[in-house]
Amino acid sequence: xxxxxxxxxxxxxxxxxxxxxxxxxxxxxxxxxxxxxxxxxxxxxxxxxxxxxxxxxxxxxxxxxxxxxxxxxxxxxxxxxxxxxxxxxxxxxxxxxxxxxxxxxxxxxxxxxxxxxxxxxxxxxxxxxxxxxxxxxxxxxxxx
Length: 144
Ligand SMILES: [Cu+2]
Hints:
Layout: H1 2-23, E1 26-33, E2 42-50, E3 56-62, E4 66-76, E5 82-86, E6 90-92, E7 96-100, E8 105-112, E9 121-128, E10 132-140
Parallel strand pairs: 1-10
Antiparallel strand pairs: 1-2, 2-7, 2-8, 3-6, 3-9, 4-5, 4-8, 9-10
The structure holds copper (II) ion.
Copper (II) ion (CU) binds next to strand 8.
């Protein structure tokens, strides 16, 4: 009886660990960018879901549609003016999500090399400390 129980528990452990292994990773959801004209700036917003057991960090981004790609944090300064501060690292804790949303964190597309029109998509590569490079498709749309 004991041996049967032990086998059952072992099987259960194998099942659970393999199920977890499947969903392990960094998942990027709902990526969108504001429309803009060539020469202007635009911003990308998205949600990053860290399904792993270890924290990770967003350390950079890259896209062919802009001359530069920077991680920014919008914040109100002491005088009540909205400013943007460049971020070298955005931490995504283990088993947690962070949202890059209007008024807060975003990925700035500095000097667009082409027009970004509503409805089109473009690739954006995100650089993570642990997960490495992840390339996603960003949809151009108006903010809701
Ligand atoms: Cu910005």
